[in-house]
């Protein structure tokens, strides 16, 4: 039995004679300390000695929601990523099914003389206790316990609705012949009807509610349900005529090879195709082959690219067989989608990381689009799993093929392709007349000062003017939101810092807000310096808001729209913004990373990268890879249709080979340099990393705990004869975050599984590794975010 919690622990309960009826992953309500919890059935176990074993209260659902395949996947994730199995199983369920506590507090029948006077009149047994009453009662823990023991307040447990009620719009008669069997006395032919009838019509023709109920129970009558609404899909118009596009020779060659692989069980293929080479069309044709063979298809995409080509394509190709599983959907929508997938209403499920767990029966193929994207890795909370790698595992468990696709594959995946573990397929050209954009690198060391603005060079200004006059569209890309990354007092030079993270606070124009981009700390109306009260400020550096303000002046003809997480904060606003831009309501789109992914905007003929240098020098071994991928992706947004595109990359380091490679769209050149670096410094794919982060409010306690932990870890690793090198403890790049100091230990190993097993056994022996209670520990296997 797995129960949610911070530790990788399982618990044993008694199930009486019903144990053989329980299914792996089935949800059970169990007593847990003074309360009850929802747990997941993992399997039968020998009762541990000398411990009283409590019986379960009852199963929550008649059966498990997990196919054996998904159950195994969740346990693999738990084992590999050092996570609690309950957290992994919960991650696989739609939000409305994974709540751990599904109870309300109600008044009981106990003696109310202990209840404070003011509540006594209201304490009607069975009625829900209002929240504010609960709050004030809970304030006195001792009293609360007494009230619980005496049955004055009672926790009432209820099963949350696993089956969402869809409104029935009418009824259909399934089997008229057996009507008389059910009703006997009733003249059957009076009850016959042909088409769908509403309840009202049924009543008029002599059906009582009682008969309707009996006929439903006997499966003679079937409810006709309303079609579920799918709002995310409403924003994505199915792409027209995609079924009729003829494949290019390159696409055909790739498709044939992939189709052949469909019959050989598990195997990984990597489709490396330049931006705009039509990878999506290949995905669709391959998925079609799989559907023809009677199987279903899972398609993973990065977090926000659902706005783009992928979904529109699949909808155009497969229509209503496609559904989406996405966090921008409401709980209800997600449950509907999940249920539809389980029932087999949809045969293709598309979505980001969390869609990995789509309960597709009879899965035949997994596609991971933009496989290099870092949004596939869940950093927080646990399970800190990698969506791509877990997808490969899901395919392995099903013995089916996986297709990874990208214009800038992760160095790991490309390495595996080069060394023969993955099959490599390439698309080197854009189909039709569409050409790769002309890329020009602008040396800001000389050009920067010449323009009117420090962040729009003269060449970029001139090109933009030209495109505006020609009625074309432009994208400006700057990966920094807000107005300026800091605000500085003009008189005393003071720069306000986040009190929790000790980093510069970003200045946002709206409400003159100071915002920490790491912990969300916020402070409004910063009108005077906190040190000297001066109201004269400088705003060093540039964010999207500052650019937006300035381009209004620089380009009076431009209709600008900004796209970043500040401007796109509503659930669907990103879809709206992009849809409007695609419909040419504006001609200049300015934004962060959000503009780089998966957009297919034929009107765009110019992309301006305002600062290519950003993020390049982060202390992260993937910094180069990420910068390269971003430049490549954003450059790929230009000139997708018949109009030739242009890209201007502004940089202060024009000699950086990464920029040169990106400008030439030369992935292989980038890869060959990068793989050497990885080899020399011993980084993935040559080793795997496990990052262990310790944090605490008190830095000196943290320091000594971290050193002590490192020593014990080193000893354990040596004893277990695991080959791993241990670096640290060292301060994390973000050494202070959310009021806590942070140290990390980095393990490099090729024996990750053994290492995690060791940690697991160690933690079972010594709960929380015997760390002081004030020290928090996070273990991140194959980390992406190194901060
Ligand atoms: P990628 O995902 O590889 O960057 P897309 O799949 O978005 O590329 O395709 C880019 C554009 O090329 C799309 O508008 C798509 O419809 C078009 N396209 C793809 N394949 C063909 C083809 N064989 N013939 C004509 N146009 C194509
Ligand atoms: Zn000051
Ligand atoms: Zn902060």
Structure class: alpha/beta
Strand neighbour order, sheet with most strands: 11-12-10-13-14-9-15
Radius of gyration: 30 Å
Largest sheet: 7 strands, parallel
**Ends apart, CA distance between termini:** 34 Å
Shape: globular
Q: List the ions, cofactors and other small molecules found in this model.
A: adenosine-5'-diphosphate, zinc ion
Strand content: 15-25%
Mean model confidence by pLDDT: 85
Helicity range: 25-40%
Tell me about this structure.
- The chain is an alpha/beta fold.
- 31% of the residues lie in helices and 20% in strands.
- The protein contains 24 helices and 30 strands.
- It has a seven-stranded parallel beta sheet with strand order 11-12-10-13-14-9-15, with helices on both faces.
- Helix 20 (623-635) links the parallel strand 25 (604-609) and strand 26.
- The protein is globular and about 85 Å long.
- The two termini are 34 Å apart.
- The chain binds adenosine-5'-diphosphate (ADP) and zinc ion (2 copies).
- Adenosine-5'-diphosphate binds next to helix 11.
Comma- or semicolon-separated keywords:
787 residues, alpha/beta, seven-stranded parallel sheet, six-stranded parallel sheet, 24 helices, binds adenosine-5'-diphosphate, binds zinc ion
In short:
Helix content is 31%, strand content 20%.
Summarize the helices and strands and which ones pair or pack.
Elements: E1 2-3, E2 27-32, E3 35-40, E4 58-59, H1 68-80, H2 85-91, E5 103-107, H3 117-120, H4 131-138, H5 141-149, E6 153-157, E7 168-173, H6 179-183, H7 199-204, H8 209-217, E8 221-225, H9 231-234, H10 249-261, E9 267-273, H11 279-292, E10 296-300, H12 309-318, E11 322-324, H13 331-343, E12 348-351, E13 363-368, H14 387-398, E14 401-406, H15 411-418, E15 423-427, E16 438-443, H16 444-447, H17 458-469, E17 473-477, E18 488-489, E19 506-508, E20 513-515, E21 522-523, E22 537-538, H18 544-554, E23 560-563, H19 573-582, E24 588-591, E25 604-609, H20 623-635, E26 646-651, H21 657-663, H22 667-681, E27 688-696, H23 699-719, E28 724-737, E29 740-749, H24 752-765, E30 776-781
Helix pairs in contact: 1-2, 1-14, 10-11, 11-12, 20-21
The structure holds adenosine-5'-diphosphate (ADP) and zinc ion (2 copies).
